[in-house]
Amino acid sequence: MRRRTVLTTAILAAVATPGIARAAVPGPSVSKKGTTRLDGQAVFFVSYDGLVNNNSFQKNGLLTYKGYQYAAWYTSTKNAVIARRVLGGSSWSTVTLSHTLKTSDSHNVISMGVSKVDGRLHINMDSHSDGYFYVKSVAGLLDNPASTSWTSSVFGSVQTSLDGLALTSQFTYPQFVSTPEGKLQLSYRVGISGNGRNALAEYDGSSWKALGEWSSSTGTYTSSHGSSTARNMYLHGIDYDVNGRLHSFFTWREQNAAVMCNSGGITNHDTGYVYSTDRGRTWRNDAGTVVGTTGSSDTVAVTDSGLVVDSLNPDHSLMNQESQFTDSSGLPHAIISYVPGRFTQCTTDYVSDRTANGRAFHLRKNSSGTWTKTEIPVALDSSQRTKLVLDKYDNAYAIFPFGRITGASKSSGYSDWTLLYDGSDLNAFGEVVIDELRVRADNVLSFMYQEKSSGTTPSALHVVDFALPA
After folding, report:
1. Which segments of the chain have a pLDDT < 50?
2. CA-CA distances (angstroms) from residue 283 to 124, 140, 159, 334, 422?
3. pTM value?
């Protein structure tokens, strides 16, 4: 008994002694590992202030699964290409799909998803308020990549439905997300900007099923300037956390410009948040109250209470479809950006005003259940979007346009945001596409970017990798 007491005392003393205390949790840092080139002549044209190969809202244009990384893009001849490499490898193997980009619209992105239940790669592409194109691989392709040939024969034919499931003739913003059970869900918008609804479909390893719409476009929203009776909910993302809860931040975009102080602005307002505990069948507000049921007449509406977690009127050019991530305990984090009131209470040109005075903010839910917002002290210098990831220590990283990386530590309460990498050696056009899955797979921040160009002159497309704290 005496020996146990002495040993226990020694252990406690060691923990309490500064000289031999447990090593401190590291703060955020990035160390550039290298860059690989996907395509020396990728398609380049600017529309909606963005590029079709690097719109940050595509989920996923770059992803990691079981030791391999996959990328998707359009070539200078507008062919859709899927590539893979051994994780961290220097060379990519490519497959050209039998589809070419139908129009010069930067919203017609390529998004990929993994159905873990059968090891297939799913690809949705080329849609903006119209029909989409869909391809899926043979079963097991992603489970046994080293022993499966990477040729066009492993992909099925290009379809204009999900194996016969049509969904909608007004389809936009495909986002694939894997469920905890290994099924695959597809989030998308039905309708058009300013008058659309979010919906879900689900693949169980044998067939696709439409779960239905879950957000509403109806109801009256009134600002200090006027009212609007139609809108759409723009998602910052849709993600499962470590506990199986499905999270989504969003903004509303009103159809009627009368809600703004000036017609040169943008009608986005408020940051909202909902979550689902039943795989997207029902949706709850921050307080836990059910505010919508997918596939029913009772969907999430602008008039529902408890949705807004950061209030902002339509006069500050709030960006839609920014970014979100969940931490190791399942708490939701988001990046939002707009022109703060200290610069103006009325933006008159959302592109120029955001470029001149836009700022990004880190919005998060604390373990106590309250929300905290912190301004990141780095100017946007762009009208475009910023991405968010968290490392294994829950340090946060905001990846700005042009590949600039800022970071903040969990230990500071995310109050110490600082620039970690200025991106000047990339010559990146603007938004980047993050590999959200790789951060958790091997502690590497990996993103795809395209070099600056002009007009329709093709430019090089790359993937750059940064080691995060070990």
Report:
1. 1-18
2. 25, 33, 31, 18, 39
3. 0.94
